[in-house]
Amino acid sequence: MNRVLYYHQQSNFSRKIRILLAEKNLDYELKEINLKNKPPEFLEISPIGRVPVFVEQDGTVIWDSTLIAEYLDETYPQPSFYPSNSLARLECRKWEELADTLGEKIISLWILNLTNNLDKTGYRTKVETLINRLLPIFDQQLAQSKYLLGDGTWTAADIAALCSLGYYSLRLNEDWHSQYHNLRNWFNKLHERESVKSTVPMPLN
Length: 205
Prior knowledge:
With 205 residues, the chain is of the alpha+beta class.
């Protein structure tokens, strides 16, 4: 059977996996999911009902973008996006988790805007505060090196971060580029890669 990636075109977490699959030059079939009306076929393989879900040629099913990314890197290690050294790998996972948290909070903020939430509990303020705390952390890290883990090469952490920031621009039209120059330069440089350019999320009509 063919490899299959269940995804949504605008999902930052789906984009993470699409970039990895492109960089590793792996053939696969894309199946886009309507997140407002998820088909039974998808819910059968995704207990949490979220994209992405990856199905390997042998039928192995993996959900959660980080689990999929780690599987792809272990199974198809060239090129590799996680360091082989255990401490460096841990550092990569820490930054990837931070980037995914940023992405999750951006999604939460977009949903609040979409539903016209009255924010009686102050949740919006908490979400915005965390986003605004995380952005300078990434910017300061990139003031020291070309990529999040140094000058050597980009990693899964960089991919996760650029996908979250791309989603931020798509959904909330935030002008973070003018405030965080290191992030902007890193983001623009990575978008010169075909795998990144070809997966830029587009607004739906």
